[in-house]
Design brief:
With 382 residues, the chain is of the alpha+beta class. Helix content is 17%, strand content 30%. α3 runs antiparallel to α4. It is globular, with a radius of gyration of 22 Å.
């Protein structure tokens, strides 16, 4: 799918492996679905059916993020879940046309030791936002690399403004990268993760199955949607969920299709089909509008060397950049200057939810207006 270019000739990013510190995506929703932050089916009704409908919509888009990262694109044509009624946006307007919807993404490395980045995703027209801290921990186990969320990565927090600011927390499963020694890389997921919404008192447990010897469990996931008590949340396994609390069950392949079955029903329905989903290039600031510390500009030399397969040169440039950063950190320490993020109030938050400061809010507002311009800030752009 191709993003619609905006009028200020923002460039497209297809090759750079490094995330931009500012990204605005304008999606043409008449095209094929892509990996994205959710176009949630949002209802302002308070009945159990609408709560489940909204929850399943959030869950459906959890899987969209498993295929890609940082490709934010929203479309207004996702099929309804649990019923045939019209979709209602978070702004209270019924959406019936395939219009373009823009999502803006702002991220900043807020901590160097440990390396942690805060991010914020915003779609004002839909009344949906998401935030969190991006931190990974990798451990080599001999033949595989196990990748888990870092200590400050407590999940993705999605907020739906029109439903009295309902908040959904999505935690991350651990993954394993195998085949490194034999040059045949593969990714497997064998873990349990959760989606919770204290306001609606609904929770999902997702269990990614261990690979079977005969391949029968390959990329399989099982799940259950149920009522829970946010003040006494002790249920962590599917088998421990009381049948009277179950709203729906899930089953499928997280690289193919996932289906759900409502309680007291034998008919399964499609939650999401990942086969047609594909990442779409982001719309990013032109190079002359990128700050020196923006990822694509900062890591340009490393990226170019990798693309040209000059891996020794890439390592050399990377080490030089990191050494300069260490020197700046040492200078700040010697001068008694504490590093402060530019767009966020604090480097880290114990609840896992970063908070935008005034400049961060202005930057996001500018992205929504397709204005990428930012002034250099000597205090934070180091």
């Amino acid at each position: 799918m191709t993003s619609t270019p905006s009028s200020n000739s923002a460039s497209r990013d297809k090759n750079s492996p490094a995330p931009s510190s500012r990204t605005s995506v304008e999606a043409d929703t008449a095209d094929v679905p892509t990996t994205s932050i959710p176009t949630a089916y949002v209802s302002d009704k308070a009945d159990d059916s609408s709560k489940l409908r909204t929850f399943l919509s959030i869950l459906r888009n959890t899987y969209k993020t498993l295929r890609s990262e940082c490709n934010w694109e929203v479309e207004d044509k996702s099929p309804s879940i649990v019923g045939d009624g019209p979709k209602v946006s978070a702004s209270g307007v019924i959406n019936t046309d395939h219009r373009t919807v823009r999502v803006s993404y702002l991220t900043e490395q807020t901590s160097h030791h440990p390396p942690v980045s805060a991010f914020w995703v915003d779609c004002p027209v839909k009344g949906i936002s998401a935030c969190g801290f991006d931190q990974l921990s990798a451990k080599f186990t001999g033949t595989t690399v196990r990748v888990t969320p870092g200590a400050h990565n407590l999940g993705i927090f999605i907020n739906i403004q029109h439903r009295d600011n309902e908040e959904y927390r999505l935690t991350h499963p651990a993954a394993q990268l195998a085949g490194i020694l034999r040059g045949s890389l593969s990714i497997t997921v064998a873990d349990t993760c959760y989606v919770t919404c204290p306001k609606s008192r609904i929770k999902v447990i997702l269990h990614y199955l261990e690979e079977g010897w005969l391949g029968k469990a390959q990329n399989r996931v099982l799940g259950v949607v149920f009522h829970y008590d946010p003040d006494n949340d002790t249920t962590t396994k599917i088998k421990d969920v009381s049948e009277k609390d179950v709203l729906a069950r899930l089953e499928g392949c997280w690289q193919d299709q996932v289906r759900y079955t409502l309680k007291d029903s034998k008919d399964s329905q499609l939650l999401i089909d990942l086969n047609p989903l594909w990442p779409t290039p982001k719309i990013i600031p032109p190079e002359n509008q990128q700050l020196p510390t923006e990822s694509r500009r900062f890591w340009h030399g490393v990226t170019e060397a990798i693309l040209n397969k000059q891996y020794g040169q890439a390592t050399k440039v990377k080490q030089e950049l990191e050494e300069r950063q260490r020197e700046k950190a040492t200078a700040r320490k010697d001068n008694g200057v504490e590093f402060e993020p530019r767009f966020f109030t604090q480097a880290l938050m114990s609840n896992g939810k970063p908070e935008l400061n005034e400049e961060g809010r202005r930057a996001l507002k500018g992205l929504q207006e397709n204005n990428f311009h930012l002034e250099e800030n000597a205090a934070t752009d180091t």
